[in-house]
Predict the 3D structure of the following.
Amino acid sequence: MPGNPPFSQPDSAENHEEGEEEEEEIKDEKVREAKGQIKQVHKLVKRLSGEQVQIRVHDVKIKGNTRTKDSVIEAEVEEVKNAKTMQELVQAAAKANARLQSMGIFESATITLDAGPPELPDTANVIVEVQESDKPFSGDIGIFSKPEELDFRYAIPLGFYNAALNIGFSAGIILPWGKGFKDRSIPISDRFFMGGHSSPICNLRGPLSLLGFRSRGVGPTEARRDNSDSSKTDDASDSSGRDTLGGDIAVTSFADLSFDLPLKVLRDSGIHGHCFVCAGNLAILTGDYYRPFSFREFGSSFRSSAGAGIVIPTKLARIEINYCQILRQLDHDRAKRGIQFSFSS
């Protein structure tokens, strides 16, 4: 019976070498593609820096808005449709993004430039993607991690001149734990202090900001205990020789109307105007200064201010130049009427 031919085993060494060659070819192909992409980027950058690249906006696509009307967002990015070069389009997109951010009704806003349809060369699509608050209002509503503080924001786009009405309310209360808390004082460092020039719109910071009043310039005071060196004062004291005590309960509110300015150069930079009204009050509830709390008395002793100014948004901070008029202040409050500067992150 003839023997069967021996079974031929594949040469594992040859297969291993072939596998290595294939891997090397794949790597070389990826390297060539990467080099080609780098050359294209360099070529585009050189072209953009050396000449005007003609382009036309084919479409503006808006994403992420469930409550804000498309027309409100389209009004802010209208300028990108008029761009005729890539350089103009990039600049217009940056300005439009700044305007969207300055509206104060979106948690985030991004603008992306994408290539237009293949059958339409030298065109681009502008993709505007916004993120609205998950709360039922088109603004920011939040509660601090500390259970005694609450901060509320509500923004209303008005649909003309890029105007928006922002209103807000902040409140806080702090009390000692346990029985007999009325007889125990809250440390001054833990109390609420009100005043300063920080914008009440930018952050959820609790009942702290009250435009027109100096930092820690509102609320109960007492005669300074050590007045041996009257040349040294801080934010909690003034030249009258009194120290600010802060408060265990504090409430502030504001209304702010923002709008475009008539000059095109300012609108293109995202610079806009606003007018505002602020009010606030605080009181001590515990310790040596305790007395029965009266909502009527607390409400009737609110301090208030009003004013108008210019808002300059930058990458680092929101800059405000405001003129403040004090509407109401009490004895020993430290207020300042006139021009004030504010920087808020």
